[in-house]
Amino acid sequence: MFVRILVGLVAILFTACLALVLVIQLAGWDWLRGPVENRVSRALDRQVTISEPLSVRWRWNFVPRVRVDSVTIADVDWTGDAHFVVLDRAVADIAVLDLLRGRVNLREAWIRGLELRLSVDEEGRNNWGLGRGDGQGRIPIVGGLHLVDSQVIYRNAARDVSFTAHLDTVAAEDEAGADRTSISGEGEMRGRPLSFTGEGDGVMRLRDPDQSFAFRLDIEGGETRFAFDGRLGPGGSFREIAGSLMLRGENLRGIYEFTGIPVPDTPPYELTLDLARAGDVWQARNIEGVVGDSDLSGRLDYDTGRDRPYVEAELSSTTLDFSDIGMLIGAPAIDPDDMSESGLERAQARALRAEGRIFPAAPLDVERISGVDGRLVFEGREVTGAGQALTGVSTVISLDNRVLLFDPLEFGFRGGRLDARVEVDASGGETLTSADGRFSGLRLEDFIPNDRVAGAISGEVSLTGTGDSIRRAMASSDGRITVVLDEGSISRRTLELIGLDLLNYVFASDEAVATSCGAVDIEVEGGTGQAGTFLVATPDSQIHGEGAFDFRRERFDLQIQARDTNPNVGSLGGPVNISGTFRNPQIAPDDETYVRGAASVALGVLLSPLASVLGTVQVDTVDGGVCERLLGQADKQGGA
């Protein structure tokens, strides 16, 4: 674009200077400065000033060499710049005979000290629309154009981009070679600094309607690196660009800063791809590389021709690292002191540990999704770093006018799966998050690592909350969580401990006792879950529970109690409290248990050892039909 502008300006300028070249050769040239300024100013509809005398060296081959020094062209008012073009010196050899035929032929042109300012305001207006459409700026024939110490200053307020590009012609090393153009520069994009270096064909190649323009460009912006090696379309068309692109950095979010394509925070990455532009659509094919410790491959299209740009992508990972999944939501499963992990991952993990939290506070960046729509299909075929629990993940993500939808969101577990639908609606004043999921066959011991309790669990989750992070959404959530223990076991010693059966706990074996059933039903309102049903039954006992789950503070307030089918000597019988935080739960007997324990000691002292034993007799018995009735009620509610 700037080459066409530059060559057009040079053509108009030299055409005006040579209009009377034959007439005034003997009379001198400098008196033409005023007429030239006036004619070019009218042609460009901009004030043109030539501060130094004109110089023409006539040659009898009718190709004079013309030199113009210290030229300025005024800019439009809204840019705030005094000059659109500042030119130290321009020299050109002009074919006079072609000029007489109405064609401008610059056999060779040299430009030194050019400063061209290209501006776009927030409304999309640009400052390079020159002239009044009278044909005065027709692009001439140019045999060769050489740039020395020249620069293009580009500012685009609509896209928040500005840079200065330094241009120089690199002469060929031998006569058979072609000149090259070197480019370097620096600037800002979306508030992030960037710099670039590169090289391409000679600038006149940009005017050839039958030849593409090859170039290489390395861009560095903060911690993001791009390296592109490719071609522009014939005539220097940016609408037909094609080549290979390598990109790497500390966080894929840097890609958003450059392109506006919404991507989440990630660990360090390095990717390669084939990039092409066909009209308004940028096409990324053969994407290959790594993000964190996960491989990534696939394709992506970015359509800028719609009212709202649209991204459509299909990505997959053959081996997906579990900690990389956690970082996407601000909760990486890593040791925050592990220096092999990225700084952002360690900061996220360190914050969760310092706060004693499990729900991440990383907010949804609404700005990142505000101006783009799209659809992403993703599959992680194998998940590592999660023990044997999580085996695979897949989802379809759609983005429509600031509504982010994961549907379906599927996780594969050993022996089970979780199918969910998650919607994050940021289209209004406050972000609204809803999650609905069903799971089955999940192993309890995969989520609570232990050798005391095991079993397969199934259930449903339906929650809705407000807030721009998982932590805020859970703190305000309403809904229901239902979990059923399909088959399981609990160690004998754990049962005796829950029942505070101290005597049997001492002598009990650590055998696994099969559970008859289990059910937990939690109603959630305003970020607090009340356990309406909490039951685990074995052939010989029941474990009952009640209490609350505080999702706002991430704390427990539960009481559980075991009841044997037969009277039991040696059991304090009182409930056990489960309190503390979700990350660090604390288990202790209830105050009533302490009172009963103290009373039994007093009886032993005041009466007899027998009274002390009688004080611990548990006479409650199990209602064997409770579990069946509860499960039957859950089935009816699910069918409704």
Automatic annotation (TrEMBL):
Pfam families: AsmA. InterPro entries: AsmA, AsmA-related. Residues 176-200 are annotated as: Disordered. It comes from the Bacteria. Residues 9-128, 283-520 form the AsmA domain. This is Membrane protein.
